Amino acid sequence: MTTPRTVLVTGGNRGIGYAIAEEFVAQGHRVAVTARSGEGPAGTLTVVADVTDSASIDAAFTTVEAELGPVEVVVANAGVTKDGLLMRMTEDDFTSVVDTNLGGAFRVVKRASKGMLKARFGRVLLVSSVVGLYGSPGQVNYASSKAALVGFARSLTRELGGRGVTANVVAPGFIETDMTAALADDQKAGYLQSIPAGRYGSSAEVAKTLAWLASDDAAYISGAVIPVDGGLGMGH
Predict the structure, then answer these.
(1) Residue of 18, 142, 191, 220 with catalytic role
(2) Which is more confident, 185 or 73?
(3) Taking the model in full, what pTM does it have?
(4) What is the Cα–Cα distance from 208 to 226, expressed in whole angstroms?
(5) CATH code for the domain in which residue 98 is found
(6) Residue 66's domain spans which residues?
């Protein structure tokens, strides 16, 4: 039996973030999601926030704290891509992706850590990607931002591990989302050949892994990178 917690999922209005929020609701938690537009799933509190703006993050947390209580589990999921080969990548293509994917995690986790330290309990969950450690052509910016989350979680573990706070990374592989649905058939076939499981993952499979890491059963796991990728990134 998992203790009901107050959970905040960034970017919880679509894709994997939406599925994560749904899973936490199904497990009986109090769930809020941040979104720049749109809504989280039924049973969640949606707060408008932009992870590149610390003032909007602070305001979102203040609303969640007032309505659901201090945030005990934070899932840094919001992310963007601006793919392109290095030679053609603009400085803005690089810095904007890093500022959202890595800077966003920094702002959200920093704000969440205040309440976690006070409560001497916290679960920090960072959504990375198989390409963070595996690499991907055309994604120097995205892969760098996702790899950096590993160093973030491990440093945070060393800082706050003695205060009841864990920090872990989940690295999804190719997951059935709107983004993968838009790929050309030959691209899809090529990707499938490289995945030992021979299929794409589902958003629910990622969500259940995150929910388990937030549970009482995972209290002694911190600084880990858990791949949910059908074996694609083994050893990376």
Answers:
(1) 142
(2) 73
(3) 0.96
(4) 12
(5) 3.40.50.720
(6) 6-174+203-225
